[in-house]
Amino acid sequence: MYYDDKSTEMQPGGMSFEIEKKAHLDDPSAAVRKLGKIGRFAGRFTKEDRYYLLRPGRGGPIDMRKDPILRIRIENGRCVLCAKRRSFRGKTEINEEAEIPAGGPRETIRLFERTLGLAPFVRKRKRTTLFIVRGIHVEVNRVDRLGWFLEAEIRTRRLGPREEKNALSRIDAVFDRLGVRDEDVEPRYYIEMLLALPRGRSRRRSRVQGRL
């Protein structure tokens, strides 16, 4: 659901811009301790996503930046549909997205997969520990099959050149404060990383495993 960079409360869905940067974490427990000192703990969540290509059967590899892709997200027993216009500025995602609340997860999935005949081309499960740092949502995430990540995200209704520059600067400042190295910043979407995995394999594991 939508939230802007000045509020931690969830707002009604609609069109918004998402500025997001992520990095691999070797020690998620240390990241949580640092975030506890510089930010405010805002909860733990599990997000389960299914991604559908809305132009099935066209052949060729999926292009995350051009292909029409719909996401169903299940979180806290609620279901939200999301479509994005995706782009990158360097290693930072800048996406324009629309989110629409849907019905119950079971009914929504049945509609897409049985009634419409769509099949998810990839699934993602992410367990999140959320902090608010100077109005920025900062997450320590465990993504199934991919490992641990730090994410910093700002969402806003408007994104002109000035707002974009300010958002990028604020996110970079948080990464600098947490000691994130540039070589650990991940320049791909999670979906691209999951699709690149050999079936049944996982990426490198961090030094710290299990729950936080």
Gyration radius over CA: 17 Å
Main sheet record: 8 strands, antiparallel, barrel
Residue share in helices? 10-25%
Output the number of helix runs. 4
Q: Which CATH class applies here?
A: Mainly Beta
Question: CATH H level: which superfamily?
Answer: Hypothetical Protein Pfu-838710-001
Q: Helices and strands, in N-to-C order?
A: EHEEEEEHEEEHH
Number of DSSP E strands: 9
Structural class: alpha+beta
Write the CATH fold name: Hypothetical Protein Pfu-838710-001
Kindly report the spatial arrangement of strands forming the biggest sheet: 1-6-4-3-2-7-8-9
Write the CATH architecture name: Beta Barrel
Percentage of residues in DSSP E strands: 35-45%
Give the end-to-end Cα distance, rounded to a whole number of Å.
25 Å
Tell me, briefly, the overall form: globular
Overall tally of structural domains = 1
What is the mean predicted local confidence, pLDDT? 88
Write up this protein.
The chain has one domain: Beta Barrel (Hypothetical Protein Pfu-838710-001). The chain is globular. It has four helices and nine strands, in the order βαβββββαβββαα. The chain is of the alpha+beta class. An eight-stranded antiparallel beta barrel has the order 1-6-4-3-2-7-8-9, surrounded by four helices.
